[in-house]
Amino acid sequence: MKLTIFGTGYVGLVQAAVMAEVGHDVLCMDIDQAKIEQLQQGQVGIYEPGLAELVREGVAAGHLRFTHDVAEAVQHGAVQFIAVGTPPGPDGGADLSGVFAVAEGIARHRSEPVIIVEKSTVPVGTGDRLKAHIEAQLAHSGKRLEFTIVSNPEFLKEGSALNDCRRPDRIILGGEDEAALDLMREIYAPFNRNHDRILCMNLRSAELTKYAANCMLATKISFINQIAELAENLGADIEAIRKGIGADPRIGYHFIYPGCGYGGSCFPKDIKALIHTAQEAGCGSDLLQAVEAVNERQKRKLFQRIHAYYQGDLKGRTFALWGLAFKPNTDDMRDAPSRELMESLWAAGAKVRAYDPEAMAEAQRIYGHDERLALMGTPEAVLPGADALVICTEWQVFKAPDFELIKRQLRAPVIFDGRNLYDPQRLARKGIHYFAIGRGESL
Ligand code: UGA
To answer: How far, in Å, from the CA of 333 to the mean position of ligand 1?
Structure first.
């Protein structure tokens, strides 16, 4: 099947590579010409395990191609996926200019029938707005085009994106046109093994399913973080509580890890967008607002703890930092808790020496000009002479460190851990001052 994918970010590129892998004829389009030229040479600018290899395989097999030419892209696919960015606008609502620009391109250059698929996360009602927009454009130009809109939200997680796309939990298809939904079923047939994972619903339900999923997950995190705060103040241990509640299958062990706040390109943006949608619809958004407020607080927690420990005297101190990415197995630093922490430390007159297994180039790109940040090549290299070690991301490589070395290298044996990687009692026995999330010592 001939497919066009607009946008070569995480969602678009992963989708394209996986669709090409199962034999579809995929053409990707992006307005960023430099990116397209790199991709044509098999260079993938984002870190995602296995993605660069899969893209190169797809290109070599002739199933995956890249173009900067809108007309060529629009003429290619019987099905066209819109996977461009939808960043938050100034009022918290999603900025849909990229999505509408693609739709305009389709209206202008397409004459064969086409299915337009919303793959980007877009507010409820966008499908209907896109339809009206394209119809108006066609009426204006006097052109005829047979088109239909399908919502097919993406549920991949950065770091395990290929696996999530190859073996999806569910494939959501929203639309009113049965023939279009049947064609979508055919496209997804290779991913629909063992039992039927395809759920068809109306357009608006599919659009809202995406937000509901992310906001539910964010709610779980803010919930456990709020309980962690309580635990800390009441002399309870959140790790015991997490296991205790997780044992109930209605709650489950997944996605209830306390930490220094959720980040990334999705949860913060999607919570804001759904609050905005609810307000526009005249509906309550109080729970969602609370989820966001708890997370904002949580992202400041590490800094507040450090500030309290040193009684506000942070000027001239240096902090060793492990983990810059918003979570492990990605180089993505969008809305990462590490950024809030570093920026607060700098504002208080401190310096940071940081290490991350994958996000060093990204940190260099964002903060390279700032001499208050030193980026080091190994986890150990950040330690010598630092006042304390701070952990923001639970990379595997940080989980079993040489504590004797840490003690020897730091100016004083102090660790502020935003991801609860270690056993507080064990560290206390080693003579390390250890501050985790929701585990005993509160500051
Ligand atoms: C998230 C969703 O999990 C995907 O299903 C969805 O497709 C994606 O957003 C999207 O909308 O595109 P992602 O942003 O890659 O995926 O990251 P997650 O693994 O969900 O983690 C989000 C944040 O929550 C991270 O900062 C992580 O550290 C934090 N987190 C996660 C916790 O603090 N505790 C947990 O128990 C789990």
So the answer is: 13
